[in-house]
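Work Package 3 (structural annotation) set out to generate three-dimensional models for the target panel prioritized at the project kickoff. During this period the team completed the workflow that converts sequence records into discrete structure tokens, so that structures can be stored uniformly alongside our sequence database. As a representative example, we reproduce one entry of 733 residues exactly as it appears in the project archive.
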Amino acid sequence: MTLRKQLIIVSLCLLALPWAGCQYVKEMESVLRQNQQQLLQSAAKPIAHIVKNTLSEQYTKNATETKIAPKMLYTPFRNSPIAIDGYDDEWKNHSPHALFFSGSKEISQDTHSYFKASTNKGNLLLFFHIEDSNIVYHRPGSPSPTHNDHLKITLGEKQQQQTIVLYTSGQGSIQAVTSHHSNDLKNSNIKNSNINNQTTWKTLEPSQRIQGYWQEMSTDMSTGYNIELSIPLSLLKENIEFSIYDVNNVKNIATIPTFTSDTLSLLQPIFSLTDKLSAFQQPSWDIAIVNSKGWLLSPQIQSSKNTKNYEKNSNTLKTNITKSSPSLWESALSRFYRYIMEGVVEEKSPSHALPIWPFESAQLSQSKKKIPPETLTRYQNQWYRVPHSQRSILSVINPIHHTDTREVIGYVILTQSSNALLSLTNNALLRIINLSLTTAALSALILLGFASILSYRIRNLRNQAEKAVTHDGKVQPFSASKSKDEIGDLSRSYAVLLQRIQDYNHYLETLSGKLAHELRTPLTISKSSIEMLKMVDSDDTEKYQRYLLRAEEGLERLRLILNAMSEASRVEQVIQHSDIHQVDIKNLMNEMCLAYQDSYPDFTFTFHSHSSTPTPEISLHCAPELIAQMLDKLIDNATGFAPKHSEILLSLTSTDKSVRLSVDNTGPLLPDSMQQQLFDSMVSIREEKTETPHLGLGLYIVKLIAQHHRGQLSASNNAENTGVSFCVELPTR
């Protein structure tokens, strides 16, 4: 596998950066969720304390009214305006209430007649759907508004009871009249009277006028009519009852209602809670106050100014969303990143999955239906996931206790959608992963480029190395790199190696000439001497002996040359069979120095020793015969180059782990190119011819002996550049 492919594979490890970014954002989202939960918990308690008195008064009032009218009619708050037109388009989200057949408590399931109720800041809103195949309208001039189909609303109890009749002469706006007894006639504006029952009917005061619309409805399933009403809250009392009268013909006056409702106590949102909750309102929060039965008591009211600002902000937001709506690619990336972060494990593992949102409405403050009380006690502080959506909702439920009895009379439900949190983490996730992927891609490109440069340099070095030596063994010039990295060091090492090979090849090329020269001279001497012996008279003893001696000297020189050539192989055999034992190397070198002084009287030999231990002896585990032979070769080499009557210094330095033997002599310096090649076989730099032949095997034998003792050998010019120093460092064990 090429270096480029290896670096590409290694660069794949950079893909761990997006994964680490996902884990970081996941932890960040978890921390944000915990912080939001703690924030909502800390806000729910003061809200419960603020609304406690108001709910206590409401609870006491409802308890009194329930004794009179056990059943309750909850009228949810409606913030948006409503058109009184008799159509049910605006009542789709409101729950219907049952109407009973006349004379029984059987619910009108067969006729599907029902009514719905709501309230706004100043009116009670009602919607009735009545099935009637024969609608009888009020005829002008009729003695009473009850001689036709009509709706009767009964308010209050006993002496405070008030009856309101709503009727119409045809499809359209309704008329509303109220009844009073005969003792009130003098103070009433009488419109119609019935002497038998002493009931009079009059129109309502302008401040209490009821707006309504009667709309006929006909479908394939049924026929009938709708009544849509707006009743001022100032007209209402504690209890209310509805009755529907169906007159089949004008002669039969309806005295029994066709449909009726129970006597109901009204439960309306508490508008004063709106101002109390305004200080806690946050753009992403939803605050709902419900009573212990689960009915919403906190209306979400928007003033006209706020409504205009809200609509303006909504239009601006829509415009911005339209302008900055994400592309299909961005949406796909966002969904993919969210899938990576949340993981399929959360969706499939019940232990990690969030519970499903238990309420029907995502915004409980806008709920029109009753919240099951058991859900308020079962679910307290928890994150929930919305089915078929990526959203989640945080719900914090705090109970509200009665001021006196400490009974639970309501709950503060504080919720927050994860839209803002999801948007924040999505944006952070997008930024982190995009940055990580960009960094990984750039890093991969940089590594690829770097690998290409390295590959090019290595291929260039390979091509130069292949061309450095030709097929016939000739070494070509090699240009070493000047870079200070490992490839540059390798290139320079190649250059040094090739220079050594070139020097060695030069030596081998000149070796034949040296051997021919060394052998030619003794052969010539021996041949000429033998020829002269043939010509000398046998009686001339003096000449005969002289020529014979010259012939023997030539043969002896040939023998020395042959012995020198075979000496290296003999030394290798001796090394393999040498005995190694503990030797006092200091005493050995001292005796050898004295012997050299006798053998080479033309030189002065000096021995110095230095030891880091206080003992007089310096021990070395070695073969003494080989060490002596090694010193002989070093001394022979030193005397061969040192001028006569000069000093040759033998030194011994001892440490705990090794001993260092060195031989220093004055004389010519070593060439820089040959300092490491002197210890190779058949290498010599002698220029002057001597009587004894030198074939460059002496220092090679020194190298073999040093390697056998696991030592290191070096040769260098001394610090004063006046001579050469040969050092052998041998381990003590």
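DSSP finds twelve helices and 27 strands in the chain.
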